Predict the 3D structure of the following.
Amino acid sequence: MHDIHLIALPALLRAMRLVVAGFGSAPAEIDAVVGNLVDANLTGHDSHGIGMLPRYADAYREGGLKPNAHARVVLDAGALLRLDGDAGFGQVIGHEAMVLGIERARRHGSAIIALGNSHHLGRIGAWAEQAAAAGLVSLHFVNVVARPIVAPFGGARAGFGTNPFTAGVPLPGREPLILDFATSVIAQGKTRVAHNKGETLPEGCVIDDHGRPSIDPRWSVVEPYGAILTFGAHKGYGMAVLSELLGGALAAGLVGHREDGAAKRVLNGMLSVLIDPAALGGAAAFEREAQAFVRSLLEAPARAGFDRVLLAGDPERAQRARRSAEGIAVDATTWQQILRAAESLGVEPRTVEQAAGTV
């Protein structure tokens, strides 16, 4: 196990603001990017947290990430919008896309947002949370335009990205259901985290460059590359293809199978469907039935090895509370990568360390 830095939340926020300022981002963009990345760490998804900054820095230097860009409306058909993210920070573009979607769903009862050409959208659950906070149901299909890293079912080499799916459902009297998962058995970022920590993966996650099973995370992190497998065999594969066709071909007009492994930028397409339950004329029935169903689930006795029954989104909220109080653990390898990224952006690494309290 590699050394771990346990960094208090306020200190980590200060330090990461220094790093993101190196992109030349406006203050609002710094807040958006840092807030989204750190929140991913808080919820336990280190794969989508501050460890992404080194890759963002590489993408920026290559010209594949454009600071201070905003979502641009390409097509406005009322309840249907097509947006272009101009390769801007996905933490900004995703938020702006949901602001537009929420406004249209409230006006029309539902909205479909087709977003393309956004740089990495981060933890997609954040956008379902944004819609749920506005009282809306949402579905999100996402593709990844970057080096293919996930193998099709039965295939010995990678053919697409981790292609996440997310859904959010506001629930009366409790926090919303937030279902957020990669269609691969493990997120690519989690293999990076495991590699940096010197850990192995569970069996059934990756194959090597000859298609053979392995537990070494290096096969999705460093060359020569192997591939990650889809969850649930053909079921995850089917979801991955669906996300590619809807989030990529339909929403973005761009799919992610291209062999451009030298580029560090990560572009996402996202097809989002937002629904206002009140507009269906049955909001009272929805709330009554949803509340009764959820109560019946959560009141079920826990079986051996489990404390209690949870809903999707509950583990993340528990992690957020714990890490907010105790601090965020960052392995030493990832921390050094972030410091090197800061230096490449013209930010003095020692100032970052001082802000984080790691010196």
The domain at 1-68+327-359 is CATH 1.10.1530.10 (Hypothetical Oxidoreductase Yiak; Chain: A, domain 1). The longest strand covers residues 110-119.
